[in-house]
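Hi V.,

Quick status before I head out on leave. The structure for the redesign project is tokenized and pasted below; the design run finished overnight.
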């Protein structure tokens, strides 16, 4: 392995995570994390290699403290470092709070918030030792402004904004409505309603998020840390 930066992208097998993995692979060796979708993660690795980059897919359920300890520990042992961590893995299980089950609350908090904590916790030691690290967390506009039917999701994404660190650069991206499989399931009426609240009059793309993540992962942003950056076409101003 040459001097390449080592980047880990959680939930990198599709959507925003996939796009971030492909973009970061222009400069870094990328670990494409997945939980269930082995074949899709392998496809992302193939796409990166076809473009001349290098990557590998590694399974880990970010909600599991133990799995994250092994996942991150193995990478640090093999490469001696992790330069970039993108906490992208996330789920939603929407429902009004009166009917929301304990399981739906816990699983969203465990994946989105605890999963982010787990990965940050285990990369921190090596990043602080190397006095270098870029952590990029993917929050959501729901975590800033709330959203009916998303008590679990909004709480998890608001919690992510509260996480911070020293010496290394930690920044949080707050996407608005990004066109992925997560948002695809929404009905046309809901989409129209959201669109009417976007001053730029269009939905965001995973590429829009990947461009910002790549900037925050690069040394061009070396003096930016502790920031929460909205990427929402102006939904929140
Ligand atoms: P997606 O559903 O297409 O992708 C999420 C990825 O996370 C999937 O690859 C999934 O397998 C992975 N994942 C889920 N649970 C996991 C676990 N326990 N361990 C490891 N991986 C796991 O969703 P999308 O849209 O690409 O979202 C990516 C991130 O961006 C999420 O954190 C989401 O909350 C956030 N976001 C998305 C917005 C959107 O409009 N699409 C808006 C704001 C935030």
């Amino acid at each position: 392995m040459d001097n390449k930066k080592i980047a880990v992208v959680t939930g990198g097998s599709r959507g925003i995570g996939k796009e971030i993995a492909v973009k970061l692979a222009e400069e870094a060796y990328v670990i494409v994390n997945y939980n269930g979708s082995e074949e899709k993660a392998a496809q992302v690795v193939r796409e990166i290699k076809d473009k001349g980059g290098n990557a590998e897919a590694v399974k880990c359920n970010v909600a599991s403290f133990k799995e994250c300890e092994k996942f991150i520990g193995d990478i640090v042992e093999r490469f001696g470092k992790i330069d970039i961590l993108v906490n992208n893995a996330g789920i939603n299980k929407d429902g009004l709070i009166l009917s929301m089950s304990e399981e739906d609350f816990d699983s969203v908090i465990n994946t989105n918030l605890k999963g982010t904590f787990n990965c940050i916790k285990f990369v921190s030691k090596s990043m602080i030792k190397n006095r270098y690290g870029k952590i990029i967390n993917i929050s959501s506009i729901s975590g800033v402004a709330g959203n009916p039917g998303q008590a679990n999701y909004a709480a998890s994404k608001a919690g992510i904004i509260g996480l911070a660190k020293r010496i290394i650069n930690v920044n949080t991206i707050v996407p608005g409505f990004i066109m992925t499989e997560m948002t695809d399931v929404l009905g046309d009426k809901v989409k129209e309603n959201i669109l009417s609240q976007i001053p730029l009059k269009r939905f965001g793309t995973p590429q829009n998020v990947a461009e910002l993540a790549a900037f925050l992962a690069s040394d061009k942003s070396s003096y930016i840390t502790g920031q929460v950056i909205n990427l929402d076409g102006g939904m929140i101003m």
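Above is the designed sequence. The chain has a mean pLDDT of 96.

G. will cover questions while I'm gone.

Best,
W.
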